[in-house]
Amino acid sequence: MKLSARNQLKGKVVEVLKGATTSHVRIDIGGAVITSSITNEAVDELGLKVGQEAYAVVKASDVMVGVSD
């Protein structure tokens, strides 16, 4: 797999929650869990299952940073 996105985080699928049209896929990246919302069709095409290795690929033009007072 080759992608232009530089933020490719390898992890393990820990949960796949299917909704009416969209699924929430949770990927554990070394103790931090990233959640992605993708179509049910994409879940089926990728064959996503709990325990499977997967990559969270982050492509964003803006990143917001916040701190608490």
UniProtKB/TrEMBL annotation:
It comes from the Bacteria. InterPro entries: Mo/tungstate-bd_C_term_dom (IPR008995), Mop_domain (IPR004606), Transp-assoc_OB_typ1 (IPR005116). Residues 2-67 form the Mop domain. GO terms for biological process: molybdate ion transport. SUPFAM superfamilies: MOP-like. Pfam families: TOBE. This is Molybdenum-pterin binding domain-containing protein. The lineage of its organism: Bacteria, Pseudomonadati, Pseudomonadota, Alphaproteobacteria, Hyphomicrobiales.
